[in-house]
Amino acid sequence: MFERETEGVRIELRSLTKHYPGQPAPAVDNVSMDIPAGELVVFVGPSGCGKTTTMKMINRLVEPTSGEIRIGGEDALTLDPDELRRHVGYAIQQVGLFPHLTIAQNIAMVPKLLGWPRERIAARVEELLALVSLEPSAFHDRYPRQLSGGQQQRVGVARALAADPPVMLMDEPFGATDPITREHLQNEFVKLQKQLRKTIIFVTHDFEEAIKLGDRIAVLREGSHIAQYDTPAAILSNPADDYVAGFIGQDATLKRLALLRVADVPVTSPLPDSLLPQITVDASLREALDLMLAHGTDRCSSPSGVLTYAMLCAAVDSRPEEVVSSDR
Fold first, then answer.
1. What is the largest CA-CA distance in the chain?
2. What is the C-alpha to C-alpha distance for residues 94 and 153, in angstroms, rounded to an integer?
């Protein structure tokens, strides 16, 4: 059974369709895709394109009209829906914490339903609070109303991870936070996923967020069809049509720079230069460009050596004037 797994499992959707009675068109129309084990796949598209409905069919909060869902090789439509949901983590934009329960009790909810021993639950709560950067001694006995929006979102992610599920569904989990908190949560989540390697379906309307988080992106169009399903780099380099290109916008080059790290670019000089502005090897090439522009120079230095503006342009196969015009 896939619920005994802790690392991600493969998800297969075949001709998945949802047609609500009385509606002239299906909410989701014949969606097929393979989601590799341990990858984060982002569903992105306009309101009403079927992103959330597709995701909710995976844990059967919405029952499909037709089609097939396989999780870790198992036919999800033959499983008891309540049992299925206990083994699929779920985090939403509204967080959905129980206001009358403490943070520890909120996180412990699913493990308790699964019959975990009290000692194991307590240890798991402590572990997860530390994992999402909330000091256990400070947050264990607080109530949701005593936390900021960003802190509540962290608790929501911790609760979704509580039973160590192989699959997580996340419906715009950072959407209700301010831009600074949202960026911080995104950065923390990227680090977390590198450690956990869960299979994650993440719904957003924000293409920038999709690029930042996704191993793959499914761009859905109105009418509930998949316009393109590929890696962020492939979509940015070769959008399938004008619809996908419209999602990317005019600054595709800058978005491609955000996908690459300084460490990904071979440098000509093996030695850093302390007289140049400094950047870490884990920073993105977009951050390197911003640093160069801020200092009025065409190069910066990292521990691996000197990175030049020309090298940055070559890394995304763009002419210098294209990068400059994109940043304006």
1. 69
2. 8
